[in-house]
C-alpha cells in the first residue's frame, strides 16, 4: 500500500464559532486593531527612553512606575464592571486611553516630550487599559455559549499574535525611518476602531446581586478569591512566570550592544513572542478538547521557563563572542544568534499563550457573573502587573550583573517553583473543564 502524507484535519485549527456572534466579532476586531496601535506606542516609548537615557533600568522603570496606578485602576474597574453597564465602563476607560495617546503624539510633534512626560502618559494609558481589558473580558461570557470560551480565548491569542507580531516590528521601522511623532499618531488613528467595537455592543448589565463600588465590593471579591483555590493558584503561577521570565525590558539593550541590529532587532525579538502565540492559537483545535486545565497550565508554564533558560544561554553565547559578524560595529547584527533567540522566544510565546487559553477559560467558566468583573480586575492586575515586576527584576539584575543572567536564572526558578506549587494542590491538577469549579 502506498504511503500517504498525513494531512492536518479541520479540528487541528482554531475554532472560529465565536466570530459567528456579530457583537463578539466587532469587539474582537476593534480590540485587535487598537491593540496593534498600542504596541506601536509601547515599543516607541521604550526606544525613546533608551535613546534619551541609554539605561536599561530606566526602560524597566517605565513599566514598574505604572504598576500601582494600574493595580488600583484594575481593581476599581472590576468593581465598576460588577455595578454598572459594562459597555459604558469600557467606553469611558477607552476615551482616557485615546486622549492620553493623542497628547503624547502632540507633545512629540511639538518637540516638548521629556522622560517624565513619557513616564506620566505611559502610566495613565496602562491604568485606563487595565479597566478596558477587565471589563471586556467580563463581557465575553455574556456574548457566546460556555462551550465556545476556549475558542474565544484562542482568538484572543490570534489577536495578541497579530498585534504584537506586527506592532513591534512596525514600530522599529517607523521609529528608524519616520520618527516617534508619526508612530504615536498612527496609534491614535487605529484606536478609533476600539470605539466602534464597544459602541455597537448591546447593554451588558451585571447579573445577580449588585454591590456599589467601594470597600465592601472589594472585600466581597477578595472573599470569593480566598474560597476559589483553583483561580487563586493560577494567579500565583502566572505571577511566577512573569516575574522571573519577562525579558522585554532588556530587548533595547540586547539589540544595541549584545546581538546588534538596534531598533530592528528589538522589534524582531518582541515580535517573535507574538509569532509563537499566533501559531499556537492557529493550531489550537486540540487545546479546546483538553479537560484538565490545571495540568495544562502547569506544563505550559514549565515549557515557558525552559525557553527563558535557553534564551539566557543564547545571550551568554553572544557575550562570549560566538558567531560574531566579521565586520564589527555599533549595530552589526549577530544573525546566527538573533535567529536562535527568535526561535526560542517564539516557543516561549506559544507556551505562554497555551497557558493563557486555559487560565482565561477557567476564569470565565468557573466564576459567577455577579463577581466576574472584580475577579477579572484582579486577573488583569496579575496579567499586566506580573510583567512589570518582571521588568524591574530583569532591569535591576542586568544592571548589577549582565544581560544574560536574568532570563537564565529566571527560567530555572520558574521550572522548579511551578512544579512544587502544583504538586501541593491536588484539586488544581484534578480540575475538569466539564464541571468547572473555582
From TrEMBL:
The lineage of its organism: Bacteria, Bacillati, Actinomycetota, Actinomycetes, Micrococcales. It comes from Microbacterium rhizosphaerae. It comes from the Bacteria. Its main location: membrane. Signal peptide: none annotated. It is found in: Cell inner membrane. Residues 224-438 form the Major facilitator superfamily (MFS) profile domain. The chain crosses the membrane at residues 27-50, 56-76, 88-110, 116-139, 160-182, 188-204, 235-258, 264-283, 303-323, 335-358, 378-398, 404-422. It is a multi-pass membrane protein. Keywords: Cell membrane, Membrane, Transmembrane, Transmembrane helix, Transport. This is MFS transporter. InterPro entries: MFS_dom (IPR020846), MFS_trans_sf (IPR036259), TM_effector (IPR010290).
